[in-house]
Amino acid sequence: MSPFKFPHQTAFYKGKVRDVYYISNNLLVMIASNRISAFDVILPRPIPFKGQVLTQIAAYMLQATKDICPNWLLSTPAPNVSIGTKCEPFKIEMVVRGNLTGHAWRTYSSGNKILCGVTMPEGMKENDYFPTPIITPSTKAAEGHDEDISAEEIIKQGLASEAEWKILSAYALQLFERGKAIAARQGLILVDTKYEFGKLGDNIVLMDEIHTPDSSRYFYADGFEERQQQGERQKQLSKEFVREWLIENNFMGKEGQTAPAMSDEWVEVISKRYIELYEKVIGEKFVPQELSEEETEKIIVAELNKLV
C-alpha cells in the first residue's frame, strides 16, 4: 500500500530506497526515503537525512548538466521529493569508470581483464586512472542483482538500437566529464558513476539521480598521487565504506546471509558521511529539514495542481 494517495494517481511503486507515484500518464513523484541498500538488499535501519541529501545533490547536478542532454526533473518541492516527466526507461544502467576501482578492480584482480566487453589495460594497480574513461553497462533488474552486459549484447537483445547506443554512450561520457569538472572544483575526483536514461517520444532523456553518493564514488584529490605511489588506500566519499563494513561482517547479499545489526553510532557515522559528501560536492552547508507526512503531502499536492 502506498503511504500517500495523490490526485490523478494511477500507480505506485516501492523501490529499495524510493517510493514512486505515477500521476496521470505523464508525471512521476519520487520520494527518496532514508532507507539504505547495499548488495541489492535494504539494510535494517534508515539513515537520517539521506533522502534529502540524495534529492538535493541530484537536483543540483541535473541543473548543472541540462545543456548536455535533457532530463526528467521538473521540480523539487520538498527536501526529499522530486517531480518529473515520466519516460520509457532503457533497461540498462550506463556505468562510467574513470579509475580501476570497486567491481572493476575485483574483476581485474581475479585475472579477468575483460569487463562488459571492454578490455582493460595490463599492469594497472587498484585505483589507477584508465587511459580514457570506460563504459561498463549493466542490465537493470526488476528484482535481484543487476548483471554486467556488453554493448554488443545490449544491441543484440534489443535493449537499445545501435543508433540509441551511440547517443547513450556519448551522453554518458559527456556527463562524466562534466561531473569530473564539478568534482575537481571542490577538490574531489569523480571515480565512477552510473546513469539511467529513458525515452520521451523520440528523445533520449536523462532520468533518476546523478552524481550522488548512491550512484557515484568520489576520492579526495589532495594526496591521491602520493597514496597511489605508496600503495595506500584512497580517501573516499561514497557508499563503498558501507559495503566494506558489510563484507567485513560476512555479508554480500548472498542467499542465507543476514545483514548485520547497525548500532546508533554506526547509523550516525553513515548519516554524517552523506552530509559530508553533500557539503563537499555542492560547496554549501547542508541545512537539515524535517517535514511531517502531512506537510509533505500538502506541498506535493499543491505542486501537482500546478503541473497536471
Give the name of the CATH architecture of the domain at 89-240. 2-Layer Sandwich
Which assembly state applies to the chains in this document? Answer: single chain
The total count of helices amounts to 8
**Helix share bin:** 25-40%
CA-based gyration radius: 19 Å
- Average pLDDT, rounded to a whole number, is 94
Can you say what the CATH homologous superfamily of the domain at 89-240 is?
ATP-grasp fold, B domain
Distance between the amino and carboxyl termini: 23 Å
Notable traits:
308 residues; D-amino Acid Aminotransferase, Chain A, domain 1; 8 helices; globular; five-stranded antiparallel β-sheet
Question: What does the secondary structure layout of this molecule look like, with pairings?
Answer:
Layout (H helix, E strand, L loop, with lengths): L8 E6 L3 E6 L3 E6 L4 E2 L2 E2 L7 H16 L7 E6 L2 E5 L2 E2 L2 E8 L2 H8 L4 E2 L2 E2 L9 E7 L2 E2 L11 H6 L5 H24 L2 E13 L2 E5 L8 E5 L3 H6 L6 E3 L1 H9 L15 H19 L10 H15 L1
Antiparallel strand pairs: 1-2, 2-3, 3-7, 4-5, 6-7, 8-14, 9-12, 9-13, 9-14, 10-11, 14-15, 14-16, 16-17
Give structural notes.
The protein has 308 residues and is α+β, with helices and mostly antiparallel strands. It is built from eight helices and 17 strands. It has helices spanning 50-65, 102-109, 151-156, 162-185, 224-229, 240-248, 264-282, 293-307, and strands at 9-14, 18-23, 27-32, 37-38, 41-42, 73-78, 81-85, 88-89, 92-99, 114-115, 118-119, 129-135, 138-139, 188-200, 203-207, 216-220, 236-238. Strands 8, 9, 12, 13, 14, 15, 16 and 17 form an eight-stranded antiparallel sheet that branches. A five-stranded antiparallel sheet has the order 1-2-3-7-6. The chain starts with 8 loop residues before the first strand and ends with a helix. The mean pLDDT is 94.
